[in-house]
Design a protein that fits this description.
The complex is a heterodimer of chains A (345) and B (127). Chain A is an alpha+beta fold and 345 residues long. Chain A is 34% helix and 25% strand. A 9-stranded mixed β-sheet of chain A has the order 1-2-6-7-10-13-14-15-17. Chain A has a 3-stranded antiparallel β-sheet with strand order 3-5-4, with helices on one face. Chain A has a 3-stranded antiparallel β-sheet with strand order 8-9-16, with no helix packed on it. Chain B is of the alpha+beta class and 127 residues long. Chain B contains 2 helices and 8 strands, in the order H-E-E-E-E-E-H-E-E-E. In chain B, the strands form 2 sheets. Chain B has a 4-stranded antiparallel β-sheet. Chain B has a 3-stranded antiparallel β-sheet with strand order 3-4-5. The longest helix of chain B is centred in the N-terminal third of the chain and has 26 residues. Chain B is elongated and about 75 Å long. The relative contact order of chain B is 0.15. The mean pLDDT of chain B is 82. Classes of the chains: A alpha+beta (345), B alpha+beta (127). At the A-B interface, helix 1, strand 1, strand 2, strand 7 and strand 8 of A face helix 1 and strand 8 of B. Strand 8 of chain A pairs parallel with strand 8 of chain B, so a sheet runs across the interface.
């Protein structure tokens, strides 16, 4: 074997090695973990993905301890405990979440309100002890529900609640915020392609490694878990859904779900049964999905346009509305033909 | 007339193509051709990996840490058979048989998933 042949052989072996290496890099690292009272699934492409995945889970647990209503010593727990008394010092993360939540409250005219804590506790939906409270009990807690009573001290990272008994519940935004934190962590670690699902809130980074967009199924609100009404293709965006099917109980044929109208104190009854928001920030998508669900189709669409986000709305009369910006990337997969796909701007 | 170098080139190209296709096939279908790999995780840790297509007889896997879970696997499919959890959403999910199928028992922190990314119709579900 002469020298040039050896060189040729080495060259081909190198190419073969690189090809295999490339294919291995295309293999996702997938892991399910538990946090924020739900399941977290990560799909990460790239080197060190296992380490990065573990780092994300650690961060989410840190946020959970800070923001869960029931975590003793956590920011939100302390803030609620001091309601009507004094202000408490906050970590920068909880401060940022409360501040952005209040912005969504103002923009939605109070349809999204983090002070729904007393209502959440009164109804107990999802705890196994859910019940319909008396009208009196609801009337009693309604004056406590008002985002304007959350006071933020911008210079000292402190917050307070005006009235005793008031309670912040970040259930409508914390998971969304955690999704944004996860994406930042992927980016910081040189990952270009990832998808994280935190209890149904999906956030994507870049494209799939094959260059195509991520394909995100939208849960059918009137079918078993995992059955979808369609697939939306996204790149580097969050897809967050709020619906009346996630946590609910039924009494005399009437469904009582977990998304409350802060004005009435009852589960929102706006004619929408599912709202999916597609946006660049998952915290934004999370808060807006709740706000639009409470507002209903007309006012909800105004809010969607104002934020320049896209949405898939499903109404109680089984119609699916998709905003023009994603019509090309949404594909209906309603095999039972239960729904009517309405195309209007 | 083939020279020695031509022969070497042909062999090298064939080897390269072989590696390429074998690699691709392997990654698409799990660890071996025709495999259908179910992965059971508990608390985020993998506790069992089963090639459903190679199961000779049904197996039952019990997890008894807090909430008692029984998982049943047969050739080509797997499910949560019993669970001590409240809502039994995991049991109601029924048999999983396709790549990408997944069932979760949140209270016991147990997940069954059938692997193989490339062939899935979607990457995730928003709910």
């Amino acid at each position: 074997m002469n020298k040039s042949m050896v060189i040729t052989l080495c060259f081909f072996l190198l190419i073969a090695g690189l090809t295999l290496g490339y294919q291995l890099r295309q293999r996702p690292y997938e892991i399910e973990s538990f946090g924020m009272g739900t399941i977290i699934s990560q799909t990460i492409f790239g080197s060190h993905s296992a380490t990065v995945g573990a780092q994300v889970i650690q961060q989410i647990k840190y946020l959970e301890n800070m923001m869960t209503i029931n975590a003793p010593g956590g920011d939100i727990n302390c803030l609620n405990g001091q309601a009507g008394r004094r202000s408490v010092s906050l970590h920068s993360e909880s401060y940022a979440v409360i501040r952005s939540a209040l912005r969504f409250s103002r923009m939605s005219g109070g349809a999204f309100d983090i002070t729904v804590g007393p209502l959440v506790r009164l109804w107990g939906i999802g705890t196994g002890k859910a019940k319909i409270p008396s009208d009196e009990a609801i009337k009693k807690v309604l004056p406590l529900i008002d985002y304007k009573d959350v006071c933020l001290d911008t210079r000292q990272y402190r917050a307070s609640l005006k009235k005793s008994g008031q309670m912040i519940d970040l259930g409508g935004i914390a998971k969304g915020y955690a999704g944004d934190v996860a994406i930042k962590t992927y980016k910081r670690n040189g990952i270009h392609s990832a998808c994280v699902n935190i209890g149904g809130n999906v956030v994507t980074l870049g494209n799939r490694p094959d260059g195509g967009p991520w394909r995100i199924g939208i849960q059918d609100p009137r079918a078993d878990n995992g059955k979808i009404v369609g697939v939306v293709k996204v790149s580097g965006q969050a897809v967050v859904t709020s619906g009346d099917y996630q946590r609910y109980f039924i009494v005399n044929g009437k469904r009582y779900h977990h998304i409350f109208n802060p004005r009435t104190g009852y589960p929102a009854n706006s004619g929408l049964i599912s709202v999916t928001i597609i946006a660049h920030s998952s915290a934004e998508a999370d808060a807006l999905a709740t706000a639009v669900f409470v507002l209903g189709y007309d006012n909800g669409m105004h809010l969607i346009k104002r934020y320049g986000v896209n949405a898939i709305l499903i109404t109680a009369d089984m119609k699916i509305y998709v905003t023009p910006g994603i019509r090309g990337s949404f594909h209906l997969e309603d095999t039972g033909e239960k729904y009517q796909y309405v195309k209007k701007s | 007339m083939l020279k020695k170098a031509d022969l070497l080139l042909t062999v090298a190209l064939l080897v390269m193509a072989g590696i390429f296709f074998a690699g691709e096939h392997l990654l698409k279908n799990g660890s071996a051709a025709g495999a259908k790999i179910a992965r059971i995780t508990h608390n985020g840790k993998i506790i069992r990996i089963i090639d459903l297509n190679r199961l000779q007889r049904p197996v039952r896997i019990s997890i008894d840490q807090g909430i008692k879970i029984v998982i049943q696997a047969e050739r080509g499919r797997i499910r949560f058979l019993k669970s001590g959890c409240r809502d039994k959403i995991c049991v109601k999910a029924g048999w999983l048989s396709k790549r990408g199928d997944k069932a979760v028992c949140l209270p016991s922190r147990t997940v069954i998933m059938i692997g193989g990314d490339q062939l899935r119709p979607m990457d995730s579900i928003s709910y």
